[in-house]
Structures are given as structure tokens and as C-alpha cells.
């Protein structure tokens, strides 16, 4: 700038009209410029761009009393910066001192910028909303929870109230409703009230949704929203798309006379509803599967055990580590019948795993149930079962199992007759802590036509216990190396330590020891069935030896205190 | 504890005697009489059954009771609890809650007690029992859609699995309330593992769940990963660490070679505890998990007349293999300092 520039010759501008050249230069600029006097804030010059942008601005006027409140505030407070809105345009003004006596306001139209920023922000909010919706909706396979999540998301981001109505099932529709600030409510609607809600029947029928502006919110029935919600300003009914048929309808309501759903709102609601609908229908499919599986599983899961007088029966079944809790191991107990006072017990292991094996266990259990009715002895039951399996199974599958009949004997004793077919023989825990193997043996069931079964009799005194178990127990791999089998020796030791414990505690303890042994590693099915002759008071517990050291590493110094009995 | 006026003096001792003698009928008769006398079932559960169970644990730790007697007493208390529960029906007025012990956790009685307390408070309760694998728990959540999960962990070595379960439950959209000693003093580790809440006992849990539930919590994935490469190393080399420590011990104590399987298993298990508690301490970044374990173990060993050198030698046998892992060594050192 030189001394001749207009800035330093401002006085001349006041005295005389601006030189034509200066005026032309300012008018040609795209930026809007107001020149003002420093002393009185009077507008001296308004260039063409400024006059176009804000027609109310004129030379001679006062900067603080023009049509721009933002400018007025900036002038009053001496700010060098202001933003304002005028006739739908977003303006940004900067003050620049032009010498001591003058200053200029340079106005910029930032409408496009603001609109872009708003759009970006809205887009980000939509993206964040849809991302949250995706995350939360995909998390649950439970339909009720999916519905609740849908309502929560809709109320947080789209409307003051959300109602989800499921398709009609047996003349009724389930609904879930949430009003902002409230809690989720659920209920059922009769089919004949649904037409009361504008657009609902169309959406549930799979027809295209009706735009919100054509839905008369005033027609919404009173039951749609709780008392106190107030008049509905705008209503939007969006389909929840499902598996080739609607998974339901999402009804959104906004309060207040001025409320509306814009086209963008409707689009967003529709995109959200697509995600919600997918989650709700997937959860519906999952529920159907679960219901079906539950029906099929019901007969395959371990039974509730009868508790015959004078005999303590405890079962435990742990499926291999998968979500379906059925497998190839099983046990069953058949209570006394009219013909026989004996209780029949069975525990077995079908070769193979998972549902196929479980189905065969179901057949075996059913066969045993029938055999039990014809009063067969355990050995005979195994022989007949062998024939039945050989004739029925298409695949080559065999079973190992123990069958026994249990009856009460004199003086609180319990008598067992046990027969095994290729199964580990049961163990008996005596009152003195010794563990014996039941001397019974036999060949696999369902493998060859001729089986050899040698049954054995066992008598349990009060407090004594007989444990039937599947080889998943002794073959559980773990220990320090993670590959060592638990083995029968450890099982015998563990059982011996359970002397005097109730049957339930004994079975639980062995489960626990094996679980600790495998340290969360892969597990095979494990089934256990314990028969115990109950006793009221177990004196051996009170007089029993105290625990030896849990820390065996110092045992060399402590001689016989090495034996360890703790967890 | 303030003894309710309806508890006559010596009642707790009588009950302890009954469970200690495996007298199921006596124990059940005693709690039934209390119910008939108008004692609130909650008081019987908390002030009698839970208190006695704590005594039983102390008696075992002090080597007064054998492990068999402890287990038998616990079984009797479960029957007594079932008897109280069977006689008290409450119409459900709150939401539904699933209650489980974390995978590998077998202390079912405190959790069963919580289940009954919540039932009395109007919750619909699904009690999944002890040792619930995370997968089974999450499957159950998808099938039943409860409003909350209560997860119990009594032993800190299960914390990594508790963490996996908490994250999975929360990812499935179900808030988790944690409970049990394993979550540390004041439930400090529970928060670290992303649980929505923590309760010291059944009564606190009932109160916590009765108001302001579910709490607002951040995205579960934010706390989905804990532990570092030292934790990973210790866990992946668990077998080697224990095996090598056993060999080191055999050199120090030649008679270890004459041990029978049972004794070897016991020693292996003790070393596993050292490694597992070390891993848990590294996972949660809390040395206290390890030092608490050492303090507790020292007391248990002391009650059994075992000299502390045994523990120190075990710690050294593990530490000597972890020279390149400074945090692990620091944790082991902190433990060693506590051994007199």
C-alpha cells in the first residue's frame, strides 16, 4: 500500500464521492463490502455484492440498526467477527480496520458451506445410528430382546414414541411400545383393532408403505399410545422386512402440531427398519429351531431320577463342550412296576458323538423301558437289546453299557445285580474307604450276534456307594501336560476320599476333580450314576483323619503326612 | 451380624453341628421350625445358612474339618436351603434373571442362595448351577432373553473365563452383575472386566438389582481384551512351566522321585495354582490377586504344619523360568516376600 491508497486517503472519501475507479473495483469484487466510519459506525459505502446479498443495507444507514442483528451485536460489543442469517443465507462478516477513521465489514455467503456441514453432520449421525443399530440388533438372537432394542433405538433417534406390531398370529398381534423417558411395554392386540391405525394393515399385508404426509395422525386410535402422550403431530408406519414376508410394522409418532417426518426421516426409518426386520425375523427362525430342538431334546436329556425309599440315586451328565447339550452318553432309571419292586438303572455310551449318537441313545433307552416291563434280568436285557440293535441300526453303531436292578435288603442295605456290555465295570465305595471293582464283564452291544454277559451281585451297607460311569471320565485328558488321561487309579483315589459323603456330594466332587484335571480343555461326554444305601449320621466324618498337607512338595520331610485329601 | 431376636442362642452352633454330622433331617427340621416360628426366609438363608457355610470354609482352612466333611456339610446346607425355598412362594413381579457360576467354578451354594433371595424379591430366576461354560450361558441367553445375568466367581484363576463370559453376555445385550470373592476386594476386578455392577453378597445383589437397572454402560467391546504378551506366554506355556518346575523340584528333593501318583498329582496341582494365579494377576494387571493367593495359601499350609520353605521353593521353581518376563517376575517376587 502506498500513501495514495484509498485506505489512507479515507478522509477524501467522506468529503467527496468515492472515485469512480474505486467504486467500480469494489463493485466488481465478489466479496460483499461495507465501509463504515469508525466514530459513528455509519455506513459510507455498500458495494454491489453487499447490496445483492443484503438488500436492506444502504449508505448513510447505521451499521448497528440495519437488517442484520448479528452485525448490530458485533458493532455494539466491538467484535471483529459475526455470523448471521438473512433471507435464508448464512453470512459471515469480518471487520478490518482501514486506517484510524474507517473500517470495513467483509461479508461472505457461507450458505453452501453450512449446508454441507449440516449434511455431513446429519450423515454422520445417521451412520452412527445405523452402526449402533447394526451392532445392537445383531447381538441378540432372542426375539423379545430384538423387539425391545428396536423400540429403544427408534425412540433414541427417530421419534418420541415407537410401537412395533408383529404379524397376526391366531387372530392376535403382539406389540412392543416405548415412549421416550418411559419403559418398554408389551402386550397383545386383537386382529380386528389393527385397521384403526392408518397405514398399518397395508404394511402388515406386505404392501408399500404410505408416506407420512398422507397419514392422518388425528385418526390414530387412543390405545396406540399411553394416556398423557398428548396429540400426535406426525405418524409414520414403516414395514419391518422379513423373510419374504413382513416381520412386522414399526409405527413412529412425533408430538406437537408442527411435527413431521421429512423425506430423509422416512428414508432413514426405512433403512433402520430393514436392519431391525432382518434381526427380528432371524430371531424368529432361531426360536423355531430352538423350539424344535427342545422337543427333540426333551427325550434325550437325562431324566429326573425317581427317589425310591431306602435307595439314594444321583445322576450327572456333562455333554462334550458344545452348545447342544446332548451326546452319546446316557443314563436312565426305571422305577418299580406293578410286577416288580426293583428299580432298574442303566448307564451307557453310544459310539459317536452329537445328535446322531443322541438319537441312538433315545432308541436304547426306549428299548430298555419296554424290556423292563417284561421283567427281564439285567443280563437278559442286554442280550435282547443286542438283538434289537443289530436288526434296527442301518449304520454300524454299537453301545457299551451297564444295566442293573436295585432293591432294598434288610438292615438298610441295598442289593444290586449288575451286567455290563463292554463297559467299564462299576466301582463300589465301602464304608472303610476301600474301592472295589464290580466283577462283571460282557461284550459290546450291537456289534456281534452272540454276546457274552456275566452279571454280578453287589450288596451295599448303609453309607456305601456304587458308581456307574462312562469312559469320558477316565479318559478325560488334562494334568500338567494337558494330554494325560485322568485314569481309573485317580478315580479310585478320588472316590475313596468321598467316604461318608452323601451321594450328591460324591458325584459333584468327582465332576469337580475331573473338571480341574482337564483345566478347561476339550471334554468328552461324561455320565455318572451313583446308587447309595443312605445313612442318617455318618460318624466316620467326625472321627475321620484330618487333612494332610495340601502342599506335597515338602512331604519328604514329613513322612506319612504326604497323603493329600484336599481339593 | 445382628442375631435376630427369633434366633435362640446357640442356634447357629446347633445348625453347624447338624450339617457337620450330615444330619439332613435334623437340619431341614431346624430351618422348618424357624419358618413356622415366623422367621423371614431371607434371615434363615443369610444369617443361618450362609453364615454357617462361611464357618465351614474356615473350619476346613484351619484343618479342623476334612474335605469330605466340608463337602457333606455343603450338601446338607443345599437341602436345607431347598427346604426353605420349597415353603416360600412369591409371585414374580420383576424381570427375569439368569444365575450361573463361571466355567470351572464349583461353589454353587452361595449362588443358589442368591437365586432364592432374588426369587423372594419377585424375580423370575433361571439357575444354571455350577461350572457353566460360557457357550452354554450365551446359548441360554439367546433362548430366554433375560433382563440380567448374575455371574459368580469365587476363585481369581477363573477371571479370564469370567471375563469372556461377561463380554459375551454384554455383547448379547444382557447386563451382568458380578459377585463372589474372585472379583477382588470391593469387586475391583469386576469393573475392570466390564461387569455392569458388582455385589458383595446376596443381599447387596438384591438391593442393587432392585433399583436403577439396567445401568448405562459403555460398549462391551471396549473392555473385551485384557492381558498382554506376558499373560499369553504364561498361559500358552502352562504345561512346560509346571513340568519344568517339577523337574527342578525333583533335583532339590530327590525323594520326589519316589512319590506315588497321588503325591505327584498333588504337587503338580500346587504348582499349577502358582502358575494359574500368576496368569490371572497378569491378565487383570493386579499383583494383589497373586499376593492374596499367597497369603491365603500360607495360612492354609501353616494350619497343616507345612514349613513355608515349601511354598518359597515352588515359587522359585516357576520364577527361574520367567527371567525374560519382568512383570511376571515382579508378581512372583511380591508373593515371595510374603512367605515368612
Automatic annotation (TrEMBL), chain A:
Keywords for the protein's UniProt record, in alphabetical order: Hydrolase
InterPro entries given in the database record: Bact_Sigma-Reg (IPR052016), GAF-like_dom_sf (IPR029016), PPM-type-like_dom_sf (IPR036457), PPM-type_phosphatase-like_dom (IPR001932)
Coiled-coil intervals, chain numbering: none
Single GO molecular function: phosphatase activity
Gene3D superfamilies referenced in this protein's UniProt entry, alphabetically: 3.30.450.40, PPM-type phosphatase domain
UniProt key word Hydrolase: yes
PPM-type phosphatase domain ranges (all copies): 311-533
The keyword Acyltransferase appears for this protein: no
Taxonomic superkingdom: Bacteria
Matching PANTHER family: STAGE II SPORULATION PROTEIN E, STAGE II SPORULATION PROTEIN E-RELATED
Protein name (Swiss-Prot/TrEMBL): Stage II sporulation protein E (SpoIIE)
Organism in which the protein naturally occurs: Paractinoplanes atraurantiacus
TrEMBL record, chain B:
Entry's Gene Ontology BP terms: homocysteine metabolic process; tetrahydrofolate metabolic process
A Pfam entry, by short name: B12-binding_2
Classification via InterPro entries: Cbl-bd_cap, Cobalamin-bd, Cobalamin-bd_sf, Met_Synthase/Corrinoid, Meth_synthase_dom
GO molecular function term, any single one: metal ion binding
Keyword Metal-binding in record: yes
UniProt entry keywords in alphabetical sequence: Cobalt, Metal-binding
One cellular component (GO) term of this entry: cytosol
PROSITE patterns named in the record: B12_BINDING (PS51332)
Sequence ranges assigned to domain B12-binding in this UniProt record: 94-220
Domain of life: Bacteria
Protein's recorded name: Methanogenic corrinoid protein MtbC1
Lineage: Bacteria, Bacillati, Actinomycetota, Actinomycetes, Micromonosporales
Amino acid at each position: 500500500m502506498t500513501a495514495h491508497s484509498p485506505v489512507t486517503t479515507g478522509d477524501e472519501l467522506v468529503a467527496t464521492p468515492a472515485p469512480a475507479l474505486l467504486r467500480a473495483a469494489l463493485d466488481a469484487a465478489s466479496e460483499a463490502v461495507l465501509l463504515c466510519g469508525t466514530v459513528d459506525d455509519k455506513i459510507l459505502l455498500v458495494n454491489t455484492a453487499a447490496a445483492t446479498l443484503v438488500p436492506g443495507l444502504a449508505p448513510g444507514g447505521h451499521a448497528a440498526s440495519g437488517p442484520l442483528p448479528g452485525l448490530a451485536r458485533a458493532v455494539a460489543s466491538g467484535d471483529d467477527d459475526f455470523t448471521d442469517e438473512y433471507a435464508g443465507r448464512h453470512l459471515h462478516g469480518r471487520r478490518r480496520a482501514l486506517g484510524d477513521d474507517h473500517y470495513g465489514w467483509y461479508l461472505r455467503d457461507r450458505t453452501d458451506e453450512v449446508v454441507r456441514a449440516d449434511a455431513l453432520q446429519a450423515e454422520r449421525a445417521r451412520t452412527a445410528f445405523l452402526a449402533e443399530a447394526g451392532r445392537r440388533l445383531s447381538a441378540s438372537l432372542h426375539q423379545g430382546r430384538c423387539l425391545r432394542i428396536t423400540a429403544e433405538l427408534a425412540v433414541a433417534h427417530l421419534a418420541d414414541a415407537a410401537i412395533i406390531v408383529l404379524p397376526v398370529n391366531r387372530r392376535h398381534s403382539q406389540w412392543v411400545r416405548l415412549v421416550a423417558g418411559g419403559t418398554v411395554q408389551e402386550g397383545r392386540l386383537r386382529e380386528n383393532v389393527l385397521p384403526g391405525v392408518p397405514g398399518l394393515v397395508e404394511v402388515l399385508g406386505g404392501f408399500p408403505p404410505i408416506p407420512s404426509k398422507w397419514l392422518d395422525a388425528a385418526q390414530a386410535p387412543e390405545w396406540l399410545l399411553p394416556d398423557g402422550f398428548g396429540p400426535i403431530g406426525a405418524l409414520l408406519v414403516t414395514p419391518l422386512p422379513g423373510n419374504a414376508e413382513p416381520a412386522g410394522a414399526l409405527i413412529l409418532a412425533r408430538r406437537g402440531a408442527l411435527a413431521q417426518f421429512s423425506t430423509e426421516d422416512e428414508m432413514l426409518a426405512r433403512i433402520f427398519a430393514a436392519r431391525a426386520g432382518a434381526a427380528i425375523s432371524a430371531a424368529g427362525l432361531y426360536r423355531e429351531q430352538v423350539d424344535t430342538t427342545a422337543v427333540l431334546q426333551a427325550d434325550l436329556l437325562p431324566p429326573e431320577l425317581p427317589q425310591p425309599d431306602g435307595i439314594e440315586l444321583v445322576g450327572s451328565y456333562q455333554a462334550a463342550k458344545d452348545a447342544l447339550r446332548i451326546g452319546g452318553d446316557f443314563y436312565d432309571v426305571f422305577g418299580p412296576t406293578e410286577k416288580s419292586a426293583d428299580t432298574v438303572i442303566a448307564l451307557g455310551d453310544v459310539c459317536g458323538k452329537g445328535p446322531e449318537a443322541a438319537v441312538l441313545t433315545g432308541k436304547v433307552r426306549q428299548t430298555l423301558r419296554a424290556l423292563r416291563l417284561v421283567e427281564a434280568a439285567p443280563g437278559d436285557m442286554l442280550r435282547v437289546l443286542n438283538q434289537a440293535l443289530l436288526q434296527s441300526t442301518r449304520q454300524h453303531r454299537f453301545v457299551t453299557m451297564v444295566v442293573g436292578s436295585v432293591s432294598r435288603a434288610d438292615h438298610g442295605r441295598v442289593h444290586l445285580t449288575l451286567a455290563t456290555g463292554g463297559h467299564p465295570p462299576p466301582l463300589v465305595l465301602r464304608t472303610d474307604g476301600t474301592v472295589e471293582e464290580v466283577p462283571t464283564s460282557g461284550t459290546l452291544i450291537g456289534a456281534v450276534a452272540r454276546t457274552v454277559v456275566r452279571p454280578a451281585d453287589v450288596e451295599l451297607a448303609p453309607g456305601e456307594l456304587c458308581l456307574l460311569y462312562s469312559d469320558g471320565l477316565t479318559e478325560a485328558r488334562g494334568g500338567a501336560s494337558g494330554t494325560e488321561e485322568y485314569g481309573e487309579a485317580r478315580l479310585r483315589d478320588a472316590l475313596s476320599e468321598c467316604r461318608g459323603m452323601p451321594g450328591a456330594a460324591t458325584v459333584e466332587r468327582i465332576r469337580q476333580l475331573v473338571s480341574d484335571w482337564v483345566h478347561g480343555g476339550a471334554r468328552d461326554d461324561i455320565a455318572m450314576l451313583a446308587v447309595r444305601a443312605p445313612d442318617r449320621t455318618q460318624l466316620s466324618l467326625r472321627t475321620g483323619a484330618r487333612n494332610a498337607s495340601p502342599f506335597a512338595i515338602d512331604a519328604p520331610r514329613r513322612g506319612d503326612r504326604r497323603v493329600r485329601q484336599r481339593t | 451380624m445382628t442375631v435376630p431376636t427369633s434366633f435362640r442362642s446357640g442356634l447357629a452352633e446347633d445348625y453347624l453341628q447338624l450339617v457337620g454330622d450330615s444330619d439332613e433331617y435334623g437340619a431341614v427340621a431346624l430351618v422348618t421350625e424357624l419358618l413356622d416360628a415366623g422367621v423371614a426366609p431371607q434371615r434363615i438363608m443369610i444369617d443361618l445358612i450362609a453364615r454357617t457355610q462361611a464357618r465351614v470354609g474356615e473350619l476346613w482352612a484351619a484343618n479342623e474339618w476334612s474335605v469330605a466333611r466340608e463337602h457333606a456339610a455343603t450338601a446338607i446346607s443345599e437341602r436345607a436351603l431347598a427346604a426353605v425355598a420349597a415353603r416360600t412362594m412369591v409371585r414374580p413381579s420383576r424381570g427375569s434373571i439368569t444365575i450361573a457360576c463361571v466355567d470351572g467354578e464349583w461353589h454353587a451354594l452361595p449362588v443358589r442362595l442368591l437365586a432364592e433371595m432374588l426369587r423372594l424379591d419377585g424375580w423370575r430366576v433361571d439357575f444354571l448351577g455350577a461350572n457353566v461354560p460360557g457357550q452354554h450361558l450365551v446359548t441360554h441367553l439367546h433362548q430366554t432373553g433375560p433382563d440380567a445375568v448374575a455371574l459368580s466367581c469365587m476363585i481369581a484363576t477363573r477371571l479370564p473365563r469370567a471375563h469372556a463370559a461377561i463380554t459375551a453376555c454384554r455383547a448379547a445385550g444382557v447386563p451382568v452383575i458380578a459377585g463372589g470373592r474372585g472379583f477382588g476386594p470391593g469387586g475391583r476386578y469386576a469393573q475392570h472386566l466390564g461387569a455392569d455392577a458388582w455385589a458383595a453378597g446376596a443381599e447387596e445383589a438384591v438391593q442393587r438389582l432392585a433399583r436403577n437397572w439396567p445401568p448405562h454402560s459403555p460398549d462391551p467391546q471396549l473392555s473385551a481384551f485384557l492381558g498382554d504378551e506376558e499373560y499369553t506366554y504364561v498361559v500358552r506355556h502352562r504345561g512346560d512351566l509346571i513340568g519344568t518346575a517339577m523337574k527342578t523340584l525333583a533335583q532339590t528333593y530327590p525323594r520326589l522321585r519316589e512319590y506315588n501318583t497321588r503325591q505327584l498329582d498333588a504337587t503338580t496341582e500346587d504348582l499349577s495354582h502358582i502358575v494359574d494365579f500368576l496368569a490371572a494377576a497378569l491378565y487383570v494387571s493386579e499383583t494383589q490377586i497373586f499376593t492374596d493367593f499367597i497369603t491365603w495359601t500360607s495360612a492354609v499350609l501353616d494350619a497343616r504344619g507345612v514349613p513355608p520353605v515349601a511354598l518359597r521353593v515352588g515359587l522359585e521353581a516357576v520364577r527361574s523360568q520367567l527371567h525374560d518376563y519382568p512383570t511376571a517376575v515382579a508378581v512372583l517376587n511380591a508373593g515371595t516376600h510374603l512367605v515368612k
